[in-house]
């Protein structure tokens, strides 16, 4: 069994036995060394009798790092299985926090002998199977938070969900049953099987995958542009707040840009990169070759696994779109699914 991450507040408060605080000071991670050990760990410790778990986190941070001024916030709860690290059967729930320390004072003369500021994880961790999971979880959530903020100021709403099933349920609740919906072709939506579910419950669905021949495919793509809603995947999104896509014929980028009044974009966490420049690189060098192969095209990137800016008749990236924002707030809603999905 591994340390299991649970959503914040889903564990009964009485079950929370300790607090762990992933912390940064001047952009570096704070690690501490217990006086009796030569290994490094994230600050944290056990909850005292009748102590509020948030007070535990603050107290442990002060006692173990000497922090004087800091902003601390809870990230999630988790089940920690210490049998992973020690020859004893011991598991309990804890709460994970993130703290930005503004001022470090003198280290209290308690259990901790040394504090270290590092850019990366140290080699000698006290709990090498548990701590990386917690640190990675905090980094992932901080990244998502930054991404949500950056999209929000660009009038694009982001909904972060744990899995594809959860995204599907939320989408089905959001989209009325009496509207028409265009579908932008995507491996993620295929996996979600959204077209069939929407059709079965009575929505009018324009999905080119339903076409029996080429002309019908063209008609469905055009009808999708004027549907009430549009649901699609995306080739890449960036933490700096951009949605980047390429298209062979351009129907999907047209619909997202100025098609239906309501657009839903569903993306897996694997599509997130830091900047729009990296998003374009991802689209051209990862998404294009895989999508071309899937569609039966053979531009050079299929063999080379990288873009050579071809002018092949098989070129699949004839239209490149960067959505930088929306004039109408909330027209685009983006579901970020905490799973690897599509290419
Ligand atoms: S320009 Fe050509 S080689 Fe580059 S991604 Fe597009 S199809 Fe592939």
Q: Are any ligands bound, and if so which? A: iron/sulfur cluster
CATH superfamily of the largest domain: NagB/RpiA/CoA transferase-like
The tally of domains stands at 2
Number of helices: 9
Radius of gyration, rounded? Answer: 24 Å
> Which structural class fits the helix and strand makeup?
alpha/beta
Helical percentage: 25-40%
- SSE string, helices as H and strands as E: EEEEHEEEHEHEHHEHEEEHEEHHEE
Roughly what is the average pLDDT, rounded to an integer?
95
Largest sheet: 7 strands, mixed
The parts where pLDDT drops under 50 for at least 5 residues are: none
Please state the second-level CATH architecture of the largest domain: 3-Layer(aba) Sandwich
Distance between the termini: 30 Å
Count of strand segments: 17
Brief write-up:
The chain has 343 residues and is of the alpha/beta class. Helix content is 30%, strand content 31%.
Describe the structure.
The structure is a single chain. The protein is of the alpha/beta class and 343 residues long. It has 2 domains: 4-131, Nucleoside Triphosphate Pyrophosphohydrolase (Alpha-Beta Complex), CATH 3.90.79; 149-337, 3-Layer(aba) Sandwich (Rossmann fold). The chain has 9 helices and 17 strands. The strands form 3 sheets. Strands 1, 2, 3, 4, 5, 6 and 7 form a 7-stranded mixed sheet that branches. A hairpin with a 3-residue loop joins β12 and β13 (242-247). α6 packs parallel to α7 (251-258). The longest helix has 22 residues, at 131-152. The mean pLDDT is 95. The structure holds iron/sulfur cluster (SF4). Iron/sulfur cluster binds next to α8 and α9. The site of iron/sulfur cluster has 13 residues, from α8 and α9.
